[in-house]
């Protein structure tokens, strides 16, 4: 086996590593937290592939790796350090910014440091599913975070979603404004307090971010001074400034520990400082190899450190949060490569194979996780496409009235909720899917607004009709002719019900005016009827007493005198007044008394019948009971038809017995019935004539 075992088998991404820093894309800081992406060298693409061994640190100058070659005359150690390959930091994807933020982009990149690593890797929630109110609430919580850079991407995503919803909301309001005929010639203005609150919260966040940047700049300048001092101490050790190799090794380890905790520095200084540090570190290790005992102690220490990393990697395989485990693995790779030195030759291959094998396993687990998530995202995409198609289908349906439109609006609102709850879709089609959804909703709103624009004219006509009814009701509300006005007012109310919707802004006023006029009239009507009821109860008491007195009436036996007495009682009864509807039974009792009196008179049946009919007809007229009068007329007309039919039938029967003699008993009986029916017919016709005369009066 070759003594120069390549330690760069595979990185945390599962890819072959040719450059020493490829696996440290997101790195670890000294306190085992995710490191600043900016602490990585900036020109990885320019690195010449090297064959790194455990006995070599990466990027040592040729003069150190091959001491048999002489240094180029006149070149200093700093000049040699400048020859080291430069490294390029992992690219950080910035969220979309407004123009006002663009000037600070470079400053933000410089200031991010450790703070925003959490934000870059955490999965951003589906903020598109939240309402503008919920987005504002979420921004309020995030803006209160002390570490503003850790929530930067979340806040920018919230801002993007808020303004997307806000712009759509304003467009709808503009359409409503433009469709309102009363707004012609006016400029559109809309005050939305929630947006003012959102902007204030966002400005608070921007101020905190700016303060964070200023503070970070100061800290990085101080860190730079510390790192330069560490390099100077390391240079002295590499030049043999220690009494023994043991002391030198101890001091180097202390310097490496200080270096790990020194913190980030300005980006434009990083490459030069980083290369200088490792240049002098390589020089020290080159001298260290001359002391086998010190070297073996260092190998043992390095082995123990790498075994700890392997143990931690095994634990990461059990971590449920794959993203969290992967981020930590990247940090472990950085520590393995940059912070821990080589191990002995006999352990070199085994220890690296263990670490790379665990790396592969975690990489495969991560790939499986992303495959499952991708499958779920594709299912979500399918559901969202179905929802978009359903909204388009609803938008293309013919809807004829407001009631149906309310149903359609409810359906689209329900589909909107389902869309927002459907979950994430693949990133490459996210914008396309969101645009398709917005277009579908916009299409529906356009069709809906066109419908309501067309009915504006109808609503204006309805308003004019209702205003006419209001005017008519106001003209009649103080009328004293309750009998005639009540029917007119009832008809006005029926006409009101048949008129459709009016413009919303006039709806309440026109309805309140109409209701006030109607209530005014019917309150007066009810007050009058209450007064009538009191009079009617008094009339009932009088009639009850009068009816008791009529039981003692004795007729004289003289037809004319007795008839006048009966008629006088009828007049007296009528003069007592009307009784309540619930007490009408007393009229029936009075009619029975009259019937008994008429029976005692020596008058024809027809005459008695007509007197009683006239009395009943007068009672109906006094009660103003037109319905019962109409029913009485219909009943009489039916009786006339029945009697005429009966007479016609009897006369037809006579014609079939033409040879019968006049004194035939059957013929005589038929003729008698015909005469009786004719008399009855005259009585019914007389009654009909009286009703017609009454209705004409």
TrEMBL record:
Residues 15-25, 66-96 have a biased composition (Basic and acidic residues). Keywords: Coiled coil. It comes from the Bacteria. Residues 1-124 are annotated as: Disordered. This is DUF349 domain-containing protein. Residues 97-117 have a biased composition (Acidic residues). It holds the Pfam family DUF349. It comes from Flavobacterium rhizosphaerae. Residues 603-694 form a coiled coil.
